Amino acid sequence: MAKLQGFDFWRTTLRGARFVVAPMVDQSELAWRMLSRRHGAQLCYTPMLHAQVFVRDVNYRRENLYNEVCAEDRPLITQFCANDPDVFIQAAQLAQDYCDAIDLNLGCPQMIAKRGHYGVYLQDEWELLERMIRLANEKLSVPITCKIRVFEEVEKTVRYAQMLERAGCQLLTVHGRTKEQKGALTGVASWEHIKAVRKAVSIPVFANGNIQHLSDVERCIQETGVQGVMSAEGNLHNPALFEGRSPPVWEMAEEYLELVKQHPPCSLSYIRAHLFKLWHHTLQIHQDLREDLAKVKTLEALADVSKQLRLRCQAEISEGRPPMEEKSVLPFPHWTCQPYVRPAPKEPVANGSSQRSEVKRASCQKRALEDPEGPADTLSKNKQKKRSRNPSKNFSPEQKPKYIKCEECGNPKGNKCVFSLCRGCCKKKAFKEVADCQSHGLRFRTKAEKLKAQLEGDEGAGGPGRRRSSSCPQPLPHPDEEEEPGARLAL
Asked: Under a CB-based contact definition with an 8 Å cutoff, are residues 406 and 398 in contact?
């Protein structure tokens, strides 16, 4: 059967999907995808997979794709990050039988992508990208798609999209932010860029950015003309976004935990991260349970913390208490699934003597040197965690045990070593001198004497003419080749 392309691929294989769950590292795993599909999502992506690791590590392939095969989890697109055409094709060929398309990540703006030279940091290498997409279009049995970020200039973004289309891209997802728009500088995505790309290409386009409610999805489709809308953070805070509902958080949390049990295995770190996102607004109030959620180490314990949060919220509702949000700007009570809006970055000021500049300068100062014997808040966060687990833990360097160095190599010597050496040096010297060291469990002399006595006994019983048996000692191996070699004899 010929490989479907463009709009035929979108209408037939992807079933005309309009509501799309984004590829999210460690977050769009099978259980979460199944939850999202139950509540309106029509297409899902796997988490971003590293092509080079996927090729060389069978366990990585099994844990991140092969073990997550599920008939209900379709249509599904597998996303890779890569910067080598051959490696990308190898990884895609290993994955193509388990999904409906392969996506190349050209939108990740994180520092790890910059260090690894992938994601959005490839957007200026058009020749490389054209070669990767063309090879994938020629050699894969499923279509190749791309997810990109925009340039500052609309015209350059349009040329970029057209280049990918000419190379063989069959569907394009456009995130309407530049690579600099991340973290505190995320800002608002540009639907104008997305609209310009949609008009300039003849393949389906998905829009990504500014999606917090179902009304945003409908408005985005109307304003940009795209075929579908992708949601990432909005979906994490409200999996029922595509249904147009804002259910109680515990409803989504309990349903997700049940799906985790139905589709094992699922990393505990993924589950914890999802619960932190779902309960984000409530955890700002119940800080004690926030700490519990961060520390527990089993699925049952995570479910128990979620249950305690539910009980506290239901108690507030039944007692008619206000939702404790007088200073909050949330449109709904904190126990309702709703988007998280990042606070806008503070405006820079020209006058460095202002109070804001003073606060900024103070926040940028280095942490004071640790006082190991002082209060816990003067220690690093790592040491504070260690002390919370072991209150008697002492980090004072003066009270650490002092080790006497080996005379040969400088490593700590054995306290009772007959040669005052470390084990490695002691082993070599004891072998050379046929000596024992009880401290290090070396018995070269004892074994030599025992073997000598055994051989003398055999000769006395058989007479001088008796031929030596095969039990005669063989040349000793070097001490590094055997833990306790046979001892040398002075015959």
From this structure: no
Distances in whole angstroms, Cα of residue 436 to Cα of each of 410, 419, 448, 454, 461: 22, 10, 10, 19, 30
Q: Where are the alpha helices (DSSP H) in 207-332?
A: 214-224, 233-237, 249-262, 268-278, 280-283, 287-295, 299-318
Q: What percent of the chain has pLDDT over 90?
A: 65
Q: pTM (2 decimals)?
A: 0.71
DSSP state at residue 83? S
Alpha-carbon span 220 to 235, nearest angstrom: 16
Closest CA to 196 of 148, 147, 155: 155
Is residue 64 classed as helix, strand or coil in its secondary structure?
Answer: helix
- Residue 6: enclosing H or E segment and its boundaries? helix 6-8
| Cβ neighbours of residue 411 closer than 8 Å, sequence gap 6 or more | 405, 422, 424
Nearest alpha-carbon partner for 163 in 218, 122, 201: 201
Tokens of 301: 């314990």
Residue 400 vs residues 377, 395, 397: alpha-carbon distances, Å = 21, 8, 5
pLDDT higher than 90, residue 401: no
Find the helix packing angle between 214-224 and 191-200, rounded to 10°: 50
> What mean pLDDT do residues 41-64 have?
96
What are the tens digits of pLDDT across the range 275-313? 999 999 999 999 999 999 999 999 999 999 999 999 999
Looking at this protein, which amino acid is placed at residue 3? K
For residue 20, CA distances in Å to 40, 227, 438 come to: 9, 11, 69
Looking at residue 410, what is its pLDDT?
75
Query: CA nearest 396: which of 383, 405, 382, 385?
Result: 383
Q: Which residues are bridge partners to 49 per DSSP?
A: 80
Contact at 8 Å (CB) between 23 and 48?
Answer: yes
> Could you list the active site residues?
108
pLDDT tens per residue across span 201-260: 999 999 999 999 999 999 999 999 999 999 999 999 999 999 999 999 999 999 999 999
Residue-by-residue DSSP string for 151-164: -SSHHHHHHHHHHH
DSSP 8-state code for residue 103? E
Residue 74: both structure tokens together: 């379709």
What is the 8-class DSSP label of residue 119?
G
Q: Where are the alpha helices (DSSP H) in 96-232?
A: 111-116, 126-139, 154-167, 191-200, 214-224
Say how far apart CA 448 and CA 469 lie, in whole Å. 18
| pLDDT, tens only, 419-443 | 888 888 999 889 989 999 988 989 9
The separation between CA 229 and the C-alpha centre of its own chain, rounded to angstroms, equals: 25
